[in-house]
Amino acid sequence: MPNGNMFSVYGRMTALPGRRDELAALLVEGLRAGGEDSGLLAYTVNTALDDPDTVWLTQLWVDKDAHDATTRSEPVAAVSRRVPPLLARQPEGCYGHAVHVHCPG
Asked: Could you give the domains of the chain?
């Protein structure tokens, strides 16, 4: 696992009622659109146990430049443009730097 300046993204999205699974599938499609060598180390799309409309997204990148280049690429941007019509409200989230990463082997 690379060390140093890893960049992280945490987000919460609230789908329109009954559209959560469609939103989650679209987020996975966006991951695939970024390609294998994008600098993305980990990507999780999680559904909330206590809210049938909430999706949590977590990303870990080698650095911010890799994140910016990938998310601004046309294949990822094309998928991202399909997200807003599925949302009940603006996404919430934050950016950071990973302090510790452990992947049991």
From this structure: 7-97 (3.30.70.100)
